[in-house]
Amino acid sequence: MDYLALVSIGFAFFIVTASPGPATISCAAVAMSSGRVAGLTYAAGLSCGLAFWGLIAASGMGAVLQGSVYWLMMLKLLGGLYLLWLAFLSARSAWWPAREQAAKPGGRSWFAKGLILNLSNPKAVVAWMAALSIGIDSNDGPVLVALATAVCIIVGFVCYAGYSILFSITAMARGYQHCSRMIDGVVAGLFSVAGVALIRSAFARQP
What angle do CA 141, 144, 147 make, to 5 degrees? Predict the structure, then answer.
């Protein structure tokens, strides 16, 4: 068993997953605004969505999806539109903080929101394929692929849970209460940029 390959794959996937992006930013925002339980529930949804794309990539369907221009375009459009919807919700929260605080979703809703966010992100397939390709070649068997996928799934859970725990500490929560409108406004802007970029990349794949 090539343990060095597993470590390399896990570390590469950690870098990709922990890097600032829509998933990690939203995870931090949920933890700060709604507490540790909500943050961990949201993180569990994100992790399950990420794991889904990992299974797609490991099964070989990721390469098929990458080669299918129209399927990938549709997924990117849906993902971009969903990010823009999240941007709208964050902007509304910044504009009417009291109204949004009264309408916070419950546990199942947080899980569903996290799940949908990562399910609507086809770029996760690219991240998975890049990470798996670091330590796996055509001569490696399915056991190594399965182990590498399992390692990356665990890394994803740990990363998102870490964000939730870190940003739900008392100091972070108090900071959010004082700067909630500014933070929600910044999050709205980041989601808008990410959504527009994803939609533009969908049309850029057209021949």
Answer: 145
For 76, the enclosing helix (H) or strand (E) is helix 69-95
Counts of helices then strands in the chain (DSSP H, E):
10, 0
Whole-angstrom distance, CA of residue 52 vs CA of residue 110: 18
**What number of other Cβ atoms are within 10 A of residue 18's Cβ?**
16
Query: Angle at the Cα of 4 (from 47 to 57), degrees rounded to 5?
Result: 40
Q: Which helix (H) or strand (E) holds 36?
A: helix 36-58
What is the pTM (predicted TM-score) of this model? 0.75
DSSP 121: -
32-77 pLDDT, tens digit each: 888 899 999 999 999 999 999 888 877 776 555 556 667 667 777 8
Closest CA to 28 of 14, 42, 15, 17: 42
